[in-house]
Each structure stands twice: as C-alpha cells, then as structure tokens.
C-alpha cells in the first residue's frame, strides 16, 4: 500500500509539471468557482485504477483513464505513452529519423611537426684538429650538398697527404705491384676522410699539400644545430652540425588503443594547422608504434607530409582528422537512445501523440553523433530525441500503476483527497479575559 501511494504521488507531481502549474493554493482554501467546474467535468482527465478513486490527478492532454497497453517484447516495466501536442511543446519533445547513412568513423587528435628522421645528417669529422674557419656560422642557414661547412688544421691530415705524395713518387720511379698497392692505400685513406676527388687529383698534379681540411655538407637542407666555433679543438666523436632536409616532414600524433582498428598504414589523413586555418593538408600514415604507452593507453602514429614550399616548421601544432569508411547502415541520433547499462531503449512515434518503447540493439561503435541500430527499428521510423527521459519516467509510472492494480489487498481501496489543514488541526489558542478579583483585605 505504501508503494502504491509513493508511485501515485510521483505521477501527480509529473502531471502538475506538465500542466504548467507552479504554485498551489494555501491549505484549506479553494479558488472561487472550482467546485462547480469539478462537478461539470466529472471524472474526465483523472487517473484511476481498479478499486481506487484518485480525484485531482488531472493532466491536460494526457488521457490516463485508459489501462496502459502492453509493451513490446523486451521492454518489461515500460508502457506506451500518449501525449498531446500542447504538452509535447511544453516539455520540449523533438523527433529524429532513423535512416540509412554512410558509416564513417572519425578520429580527431593533435600532433607536433617534426623533421623527417630519414633525411637528417649528423656531421662529424673523421680526424681531429683545430677549427680555422666557419663557412656556416648560424643555425637555420640553408646549405646544398657539397657546400663547405668549416675548415680545420689537422696534423694527421697533413701527414696523410705527405704519405700519398711519397707513395706516388715511388710508384713513378720504380713501378711495381707492391708500390701500386701502397699508393692505392694512401689514396683510399684520403677518400675515407671525405676529401673531394678533385682535391686529390690537384694534390697528385701539383704535389702541394693543403694546410686545411674542409668539411662539407653531405645533403641539401637546413642547419638545425651548430656546435662548432673557430679555434675549437674537435675530434671524431664531436657532432659539429645537424642538417635536415625539410622537403618532407613528420607529424607525431597519438591515438587511444581502442581506435587502433580504424587506422592502417598509407591511410589518407587530413591535417589542419593554426598557422594556415584556410588550408587542409593531406598526408598519409607512415608508421604505427608497435607498443602502447601504459600510463596514457595511447599509441604513437607518424604522419608524413610534403613540404615543398618549406612552410611547415618543426614544432608547429597540428589538428588531425582520420576518417575510416565502414560502409552504410541504419543510424539514429545518439540522443534518441536511453542506455541503462542493461538494455538500450528508444521511443518510436507511432502517431502524432503516441510513443511506444522499443528495445534496440546498437553497434559498439559510435559514428559522430549517431548510433548504428542493428535491431529494433526500421528506416523511416521517427524516434524521440529530446525529453525522452520525461517520457520514459511517465512510461515507467504507468507500467508500475497497472502492475499494482492486481496486487492482493488493493481491491476496494479508496484514495480520499487530503483534508484541509484547518479541518484536521485545531485553530490557534486565544487568550480569554479573566475577571478582576476584588481585593477585600483590610
């Protein structure tokens, strides 16, 4: 009995909200003419159950005198709801359409522009010496393959030239296979030190040794780092320059592990940079990291972008959009599905004022703001997309009321209206006058 009273009290509150009433009359009072209006209306618009009389549960636009109809299979505990257009407008009911649309899984992430590591050149010397001159003296300078970077004085380089000249003279004086082997070894030593072929030929013709060994750029590109200074002593282990070919760059991004099924190598990717908001660049996925970062549960993705005009700078921020085409399917707006954790419910509009709860089966993937419906709806069905939680509450209340109608002990139960407060509580005490007592003392 207590449960019945609680459910009916909740239904009365919803009815009051839908009818637009926000205040109630003071206890024990009734507006003028309301008695005559109630007599004229009779029982129209009141909620009733077998054996229960509940006057006052009036909800314009919602006929609650009918017994709730049976719900479709899988929607136990819910009931069909009828709501008139005025109430729908008041509570903000909107509808959406179930329709066949392309299934596109879109992944949005961010990344940072990095140099292409396959086009980086770390410049080292293959001997030791002292820097005598810098040809490239600042970071960011453009160089071409073969351009001089610096010159050093190296005693080892000077000795290697002398050995080459001595072997050359001996081979000319007494030609023999052994002398030729010594000459080839001296020439090969200079070549391994990256001495240009023209300088070796000049040394062979003139017989004059060079005082400085020139270090040249191995590739064309941009100097990203410069660590050499004039007068500095350098050795083979010292990195003097870092040169990068920026004609192609990488964008290093990260995606979550559950998004891995939607990416693959060589997939086309759209890249937008805040520096160029009116342009959308097209790149491709060049590499996917083989491991997952445990703290963030993300996987690194490398995107390769052309940079023919050198407008993309390492360190730039980028917005990335990855689109995975997955065919077509029946979809509805995501707001149309009430996900309870145990089942998924949508309310289908059978007519202008009639809403039926439907058990739907949806895909585990969400496509932007739409769910793919695998079972429960058909193309063209109209479903509730807003205020569906209010409709769901009303549906549950009706189903609960109908289930309590046949409960033992509910037969013949009368729900009398509450008595006015003035009729149940005594009025305030009044102070009565006490007659004066005559003082008869002597």
Give the SSE order as H and E letters: HHEHEEEEEEHHHEEEEEEEEEEEEEEHH
Radius of gyration over C-alpha positions, nearest whole angstrom: 44 Å
Euclidean distance between termini CA atoms: 72 Å
Number of domain units: 3
List the helices and strands and how they pair.
Layout: H1 2-18, H2 34-41, E1 81-82, H3 85-91, E2 94-97, E3 99-115, E4 120-124, E5 129-134, E6 142-143, E7 148-153, H4 155-173, H5 177-192, H6 197-206, E8 213-216, E9 221-226, E10 233-234, E11 239-244, E12 248-256, E13 268-273, E14 276-288, E15 298-306, E16 317-333, E17 338-339, E18 344-351, E19 354-367, E20 370-375, E21 382-386, H7 388-404, H8 421-424
Antiparallel strand pairs: 1-19, 2-21, 3-12, 3-16, 4-11, 5-7, 5-10, 6-9, 7-8, 9-11, 12-15, 13-14, 13-16, 14-15, 16-20, 17-18, 18-19, 19-20
Task: Quickly list its features.
Elongation Factor Tu (Ef-tu), domain 3; alpha+beta; six-stranded antiparallel β-barrel; four-stranded antiparallel sheet; rod-shaped; disordered C terminus; 3 domains; 21 strands; OB fold (Dihydrolipoamide Acetyltransferase, E2P); 442 residues
What's the quick description here?
The protein is α+β, with helices and mostly antiparallel strands and about 450 residues long. About 20% of the residues lie in helices and about 35% in strands.
Structural account:
This protein is α+β, with helices and mostly antiparallel strands. It has 3 domains: 1-82 and 390-415, no CATH class; 107-116 and 246-326, Beta Barrel (Elongation Factor Tu (Ef-tu), domain 3); 124-241, RNA polymerase II/Efflux pump adaptor protein, barrel-sandwich hybrid domain (OB fold (Dihydrolipoamide Acetyltransferase, E2P), Beta Barrel), CATH 2.40.50.100. It is built from 8 helices and 21 strands. The strands form 4 sheets. A 6-stranded antiparallel β-barrel has the order 3-12-15-14-13-16. The chain has a 4-stranded antiparallel sheet with strand order 4-11-9-6, with no helix packed on it. A hairpin with a 2-residue loop joins strand 19 (354-367) and strand 20 (370-375). Helix 1 runs antiparallel to helix 7 (388-404) and helix 4 runs antiparallel to helix 5. It is rod-shaped. The two termini are 72 Å apart.
